[in-house]
């Protein structure tokens, strides 16, 4: 996870600086078992958007 976090910080510093302080609490709220829907999970919300391409 640290590698991903570092890459996000390098590529999108403004977004990282704004969102990083909330990351831990957001992740805790977004946690769920595979196959369950959680509205706090960005992947779950993205999957509900008909205009977004589906993952392969």
Short overview:
Helix content is 61%, strand content 0%. It has 56 residues and is mainly α. The model has no long low-confidence stretch (mean pLDDT 79).
Q: Give the strand tally.
A: 0
Number of distinct helices:
3
Shape: globular
Separation of the first and last Cα atoms: 22 Å
Share in β-strands = under 5%
Unreliable stretches covering 5 or more consecutive residues: none
- Estimate percent helicity: 55-70%
- Using the CA coordinates, give the radius of gyration: 13 Å
How would you spell out the order of helices and strands?
HHH
What does this 3D model show about the protein?
The protein is mainly α. The chain has one domain (2-47). It has helices spanning 2-11, 13-30, 42-47. α1 (2-11) packs antiparallel against α2. The two termini are 22 Å apart.
Q: Key features?
A:
56 residues, mainly alpha, 3 helices, 0% strand, globular
Write the layout of secondary structure elements.
Layout: H1 2-11, H2 13-30, H3 42-47
Helix pairs in contact: 1-2
């Amino acid at each position: 996870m640290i590698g991903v976090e570092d890459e996000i910080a390098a590529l999108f510093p403004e977004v990282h600086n704004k969102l990083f302080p909330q990351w831990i609490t957001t992740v805790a709220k977004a946690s769920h078992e595979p196959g369950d829907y959680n509205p706090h999970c960005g992947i779950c919300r993205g999957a509900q958007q008909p205009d977004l391409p589906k993952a392969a």
